[in-house]
Amino acid sequence: MNAYHNTINWKEILHFKNIFLNLMGVAFITLALKGFMIPNKFLDGGIIGVSILIHKITYFPFGVLVVLLNIPFIFLGRRMLGKTFAVQSFLTVLLIAISINFVHIEAVTSDKLLIALFGGCLIGIGMGLCIRSGSTADGIEILALLTTRKIGLNVSEVIFGLNTLIFLAAAIAFGISTALYSIVTYFAAIKSLDYIVHGLEQYTSLHIISSESDKIKSLIVKKFGKGITIIKGERGYLPDTFEVRHNCDIVVTVVTRLELLRIKNEIGEVDPNAFMYIQYIKEASGGILRNKTKH
């Protein structure tokens, strides 16, 4: 495991923007769960859905279930994405558990369609904000990232398969009607999360054009352990100085969505004027996508 994965970046964890996004995400998730979903036995997908299911069957405290069920996946996240990600994710899950136990919110409505749509949208927005802060509020995505290496499916397909099992269990426990509405909740959450974080794609292609390309190459390869491809190009061609141009190396790297925020922030520190653009890709293979000795 490289130095980046072994080190906890407290500066990043305690950054005001990340704290604000995390707290807002937890607030949206709490409102969705307490105001819409839990009182009406509606499930989302993932670990939160499993927690609601077990809570309603056994009456075991929901907040405790969320923490206990997420811990194994946060540990996997530590191995795959580093200690900073694991600490941020654990704090997010802990905040959700605390808010669920201590924040009182009356059920907003008993209308099943409104619960499915608004509950799903709110929890999707909340999870998206948490991801934008550099953490995750649900360990199922980490499990999906790991599982794709074993069975060859992409992340969306794995998550859909796992959630299908959850909704089948909901149909048995709560009836087919509630399970079907829970599926609507799940898709509303996915669309909202899509809007916040610009896609659930497993891999993201990041292109960087910068006058500090050598430093950025070193940063991506040595600090993050990622592979890069260099495209020879030219930069310049500005409206006022069209004739001024410079040869440059366009740095291309492929990362997972959960790694993207940290890499962009680090590049911004090296060159605040760096031009970056992102392309979401469904699948990638070969190269240094996940180095087994580092994850």
UniProtKB/TrEMBL annotation:
This is Putative transmembrane protein. InterPro entries: DUF2179 (IPR019264), N-reg_PII/ATP_PRibTrfase_C (IPR015867), UPF0750_membrane (IPR051461), YitT (IPR003740). It is found in: Cell membrane. It comes from Flavobacterium limnosediminis JC2902. Keywords: Cell membrane, Membrane, Transmembrane, Transmembrane helix. The chain crosses the membrane at residues 20-38, 58-77, 89-107, 113-131, 158-184. GO terms for cellular component: plasma membrane. The lineage of its organism: Bacteria, Pseudomonadati, Bacteroidota, Flavobacteriia, Flavobacteriales. Residues 227-286 form the DUF2179 domain. It is a multi-pass membrane protein. Its main location: membrane. CDD domains: YitT_C (cd16380).
